[in-house]
Amino acid sequence: MDAAQRVEQIISPAAEDLGFEIVRVQLSGDKRPRLQVMAEPNDGSNMEVGDCATLSRAISAVLDVEDPIPAEYTLEVSSPGIDRPLTRAKDFDRWKGFEARVEMNQMISGRKRFTGKLLGLGENDVIRIEVDGETHDLPFDDLYRAKLLLTDELIQAATREQSA
Prior knowledge:
This protein folds into two domains: about 5-80, RimP-like superfamily, N-terminal (GMP Synthetase, Chain A, domain 3), CATH 3.30.300; about 90-164, SH3 type barrels (Roll). Helix 1 crosses helix 2. It contains four helices and eight strands. The protein is an alpha+beta fold. The protein has a five-stranded antiparallel sheet. Strands 1-2-3 form a three-stranded mixed sheet, with helices on one face.
C-alpha cells in the first residue's frame, strides 16, 4: 500500500461521517509534498468552498493524530470539478454517455489510451467505451487513470444539475 492509499484509508471514515466521499487522494512533490484530496458530498450535490474547509479541518485533525506522512506537507481539499477523474467503478456507470479518456496499465487491442463515449461498467468489472464506432471492454483492475473530457454536453449536464 502506498502513502496515498494509506492516507485514503485513514481519512475516509471521517469524510463519510461528515457526508462526503473521497474521490481521489494524490501525494506529489519531494521537497515540500502536496497532499491533494478530492471529495464530493454523498448526496450528489455540488462541493462548496465551505464543504472543502469543513473537510480540510477534519482531515487535518485525523492526519495530525495518525501522522502517515513523515515530512511536512501541504493539504489541498477540492471538488473533482466538471472534467473529473474517474477513480471508482461506479463512476463509469454514473457518467455513462459522456466522453472520457481512459489509460490502461497494459496494452489492450494494441493500445493503452482510449478516448470515446463511456458505455458504463459491464460484467466482471470491465469499463465499456466506444471509440470510433468500436466497443472496447477494459478491465477496471488494470486502469491506470481516467477522466471525463470537457465537452458541451458535459457542461450542459453540470449546469442542469446545479440549477436543480
